[in-house]
Write a structure and sequence with these properties.
Blueprint (H helix, E strand, L loop, with lengths): L11 E5 L3 H7 L7 E3 L2 H6 L5 H11 L5 E4 L5 H12 L5 E6 L9 H8 L5 E6 L2 H11 L5 E5 L1 H6 L4 H15 L3 E5 L6 H9 L3 E4 L1 H4 L9 H19 L4
Parallel strand pairs: 1-2, 1-8, 2-3, 3-4, 4-5, 5-6, 6-7, 7-8
């Protein structure tokens, strides 16, 4: 494996979260290329008004892509919400799940909306069949993203690297304007893996993003810093043997 450095990364880093103050700060970072959020993250952040919060974010960050998710489960209401969200700004991508909660595919609607110039981020994608179906729906439409939940694939005990490599091949063969996103990374190594695979985007939590500075760090230096941490913490705690 080639060791990556923060400066050499080709994959675009998107910040995942729902904290307005933090998002405003990260929008000034050249290493943060965009943002994603979802209803779960907003709920965890105590957001009560979904639309009002989203509009605040867009007012503060009009220059980088931001993905907002629909809240509905039925096709007609998803269509209405997607068109509403899309109208919020030119930098908006609308997150539509690959299926609804009953497992009904939403690819026909994705195709319709993409050809109505809605920028779509197909989310909750896991299988390669879902990648094929997403790309087929998006092919030739508006700029789009396919979000494959590589972290959760790893949680199922499967190696996400060959899976994402295959997903990227599908995206490239279908339409080179369809961007592949590595979603739900579990550790900093996933950023390096996504970069080596050639994935277009990876979402990162703040906990992972703050570790980007350690990419390519000298391991001997890292070892000594770790020893110093143990020594400092033992002394601070007043431990005696």
């Amino acid at each position: 494996m080639v060791t990556a450095t923060k400066r050499s990364l080709r994959v675009k880093v998107f910040a995942d979260g729902a904290n307005l103050e933090q998002m405003q700060m990260l929008a000034q970072e050249p290493g943060v290329h965009g943002f994603t959020t979802n209803p779960t993250l907003m709920r965890q952040s105590g957001i009560r008004d979904y639309a009002a919060f989203s509009r605040e974010v867009l007012k503060a960050i009009p220059h980088k892509p931001i993905s907002f998710e629909v809240l509905a489960d039925g096709v007609a209401e998803i269509r209405r919400q997607a068109l509403t969200i899309s109208d919020w700004g030119d930098n908006v991508y609308v997150k539509i799940p690959i299926t609804n909660s009953e497992g009904m595919p939403l690819t026909d609607l994705v195709h319709e909306l993409s050809y109505r110039h809605v920028k779509i981020n197909v989310t909750a994608v896991f299988t390669l069949e879902q990648v094929v179906n997403s790309c087929a729906a998006l092919k030739g439409g508006a700029p789009s993203v396919v979000s494959v939940f590589a972290g959760r694939i790893a949680d199922a005990g499967l190696d996400p690297v060959p899976h994402m490599r295959a997903a990227l091949s599908i995206c490239r063969s279908m339409d080179t304007r369809i961007e592949l996103l590595w979603a739900s990374p579990r550790e900093l190594l996933n950023v390096v893996q996504a970069d080596e695979v050639g994935v277009d985007i990876i979402t990162v939590t703040e906990a992972i993003r703050t570790k980007l500075g350690t990419l390519g760090k000298d391991l001997n230096e890292f070892s000594r810093e770790t020893v110093m941490m143990f020594k400092r913490d033992g002394e601070s705690a007043g431990y005696r043997l």
